[in-house]
Amino acid sequence: MKSFFRLFFFIPFIKRAYVRKYYATGIGTYIVNSFFKRVLLINRGDILLHFTSRVNCSKKIKIDGKNKKSTVYLSFASSGGCYYQALNGIEIGEGTLWSYNCSFISSNHDPKNYSVHKKSGPIVIGKNVWIGANCVILPNVNIGDNVIIGAGSIVNKNVESNTIVAGVPAKFIKFIK
Q: CA-based angle 66:91:71, to the nearest 5?
């Protein structure tokens, strides 16, 4: 698969797919995701998403780091059923991974007028974070570096670095050494 991409480096989106290591998802997943993005115009934007995932305001999703950004792009491409609502922004650190059906919700509705979204800070996820299946990350949450979030957790408060959290709402379990 790698050599296939190298043959067509003169095409910009092929070179981007190689640099972001989308080939690691498999040729079938890559073709299906690309079909939904480029032909059906679903989940348009710079990031290739799994065809069952949805994104709002993809321009406000920022991926930080230099070395291991490809793992973040792989999570976008291979983690299905995810919802990314980035009205207030989502910042994701390098080396971060997440599983299926995760929701990243950066804005709430105004309780007095449901058609208006409240302004708040972005969701900030540190480096080398693992987010288990079916997790929900709520607005204005900062997650530190080297954190594990257990499956099915709802994160509504900041999480400090080098910890494991789980539950509804997510609570401290233990420190990672």
A: 45
Global model pTM greater than 0.90: no
Domains of the chain by start residue, with CATH: 53-175 (2.160.10.10)
Q: In what order do the strands lie in the sheet with 83-85?
A: 54-56, 83-85, 103-105, 136-137, 154-155
pLDDT at 15 over 80: no
Given a cut of 60, is residue 7 above it in pLDDT?
A: yes
Neighbours of 41 (CB within 10 A): 8
Alpha-carbon distance of 23 to 37, in angstroms, equals: 16
Catalytically active residues are 109
Structure-token match 């190689």, residue found: 18
Peptide bond into 111 cis (omega under 30): no
Residue appearing with tokens 């934007």: 45
Give strand pairing partners of 165.
149, 172
